């Protein structure tokens, strides 16, 4: 009997190829992103590993500062290793077992291309460093100068790596510019004297080599080196040399062998690549969640259509367990096919992402796809398990229907079950609303978590209560939208409300996707409105200067150049101040002049004037540290310097001002010269000056810095909004996948619904309904279901987004929740259009139903 049931299941799948294809497609869309994300990150990781396997060849031991592995403004920027360490190692070379010693100097730079514009690295490093002659190099077979070039021997001579030279259109003999992104360096006019073929050269990566004395003057304070690399003398192993160096300088520096350096680079890259993996897996997760409901809905309809068939199997001896297994076998086959196809498409997604990022100059290396057992097993497991879980409930429900009950012309819709579901949904909904209201009334992490809990409860409430909601909501929508179509509209409204379970399950996929759209849209519109308001009210400067460079910093010399421009009245440079207090790092701001002339602070105590060794603090910071006006605070930096700073004023926390504003004298004590960099310049023009003309003059005066952007307040606000939009685009891309699956779910449901109502449609055709009228009925039905799902999603999403925004007042006191009405209206219209498009094929199929065949079909 079991063998016969398997045959029945497989033949049933083969007999309904369209239904099989639609169900498989919902599995494919989810599993393909699971496979694609894993294959993509594995491929890039392996490509980087291949590169780093060739890095630091010949290096037996390397010394770097202890914080050298950290990133960020305060953590990653270091003075380096003191020259005294280098001197000690040189003096004790024989005792330590050192053969060659190579000091390195490096810093972030910007290179101009042949047209005088900055070379865009696409996120890859852009560094300046000292050239190591072949005779002194620890790896003579590593980076080499291509024939026709020579090593730099003067301050204005440089070497450039080949990929950067090709991208910039530079060659031996080209004249160009280099800008050091920190300190007080000015743009340098240089000549390219050679092109370097280097190990691990990737698209986007830029390396500019100077002679050692020039690199030392540009990239250090004259008493530190970035790192010290050494090779071991004959008979001394790398581990022995590392141990001797550590013993010589116990606990002071990071000392690693070459193998440890390579492994650390690999780990850092793999950690960075997890960002891509999380994004892609989020795509997959959304796709699978929405796909799960579609698969569930599909199998529910399939089982409902086959209930008499399954009853016949029960009548001739099949057990409930065998019927359930029969349906689960079909789900297994669907999941297996969908997973295999998803794996193939996932390989294409990974290859496409790799090609796209390479074309955009992302700096990521290229190589063949790396397909291991991990994506294969993950894809198969996810696809099969999700499909079988989705099919289990319909299969179990079908097996419980008695043969006699199933043989009847119609079955009950489970009113008692629907009532219990509605009660559970109502309870969950009330709890969810209470959680949103309570969380939205507070601010900070705890209330935000409560809002998250409320969101989960509301989603569950929709799952349980949507069938009960569908009848009144769809009915009300039908009264408005279907009325102009008369009897056809009434019939469509009845069809959409006939099976509330099916309507709710079909609409839920759209509800979930559009709920996320509403949450993200509310967050985005609120943040943009807050930034726009802060810039328009707090910033009184006429022009704002920022950098589009890799570090986002402006050399100190930019401010001096801008101050000389005709029409400029006031220039205030804002610099980050990373300092330590009680062992914790705090990053504040230091203005170079009178900030009150270009920025509006709401003072609560004291005045807005900032002395050289004083500071203003926000009211939140004052309360957090239990400080008081007039108190002296002792800040330190990571290099051991300290500054005693007195609190002379308290201002209302601002989205732009930061936690504290420190005087220039204290800033210079805490920040070494080569690490001083501004993140923004606020420029006020003189009364009567033509702002447009001044802006053009400043752009001309700063063009040699390559990355300086000169913007009005409105342009700066638009740029910040554009940045938010770019982040939202990635999220909307994820949601687009969910909406695609949702539309496919509507197509699937309507197509199966047409099959289920074949006799009914045939009867309508027999009594005179035209094919065009049949199509319009299906169109209207689909539109009503789509708008129901969209409306439900937008209402819940806006409520969640509104409450979540209010919790951000802990960090942005001025933030206000802004409902994206434009997005809401656009989404509802788009939902109606999607519903119409989704109904095209099912409507045509329904219109082609032959009356006599449909009526005769049992």
TrEMBL record:
One Gene Ontology term of the molecular function aspect: transmembrane transporter activity
Ranges of residues in domain ABC3 transporter permease C-terminal: 282-403, 734-851
Transmembrane intervals: 275-296, 327-353, 373-395, 416-437, 449-482, 503-523, 730-755, 778-805, 817-841
Topological category with respect to the lipid bilayer: Multi-pass membrane protein
Superkingdom of source: Bacteria
Leader sequence residues: none
Domain MacB-like periplasmic core: 21-247, 503-700
Pfam families: FtsX, MacB_PCD
Family to which the UniProt record says this protein belongs: Belongs to the ABC-4 integral membrane protein family.
Listed PANTHER family: ABC TRANSPORTER PERMEASE YTRF, MEMBRANE COMPONENT OF TRANSPORTER-RELATED
Entry protein name: Putative ABC transport system permease protein
